[in-house]
Amino acid sequence: MTVADLPALNASLNGVAAVLLTAGFIFIKNRRILPHRVCMGTAVLVSAVFLVTYVLHKILVGGVHTPFGGEGAIRVVYYLMLVSHILLAIAIVPLVLITLRHALAGRIASHQ
Length: 112
Description:
Layout: H1 6-29, H2 33-60, H3 73-104, H4 108-111
Helix pairs in contact: 1-2
């Protein structure tokens, strides 16, 4: 595996996490607690691997990114989406950790 392979790996990890989160949501709606736990726990692990490989990629390429080539209104839209994505990515980490802590402690009402 090379540095050039990491973006595809990261996209795949995100896709797998999305499928696991969706399945976990469906399981809990159908009161299937064990499959819900397995899906959500695996999603957390897959997301942690994503975070490590994402940061690793940024370190290995020196933080270099591909600049956006659009101009005009689409450029504004792109950067607004990018800023919201970054802010949400930062905010989700403590939210996941708090939710996970409640789940592992058996505080289901707080977990929900």
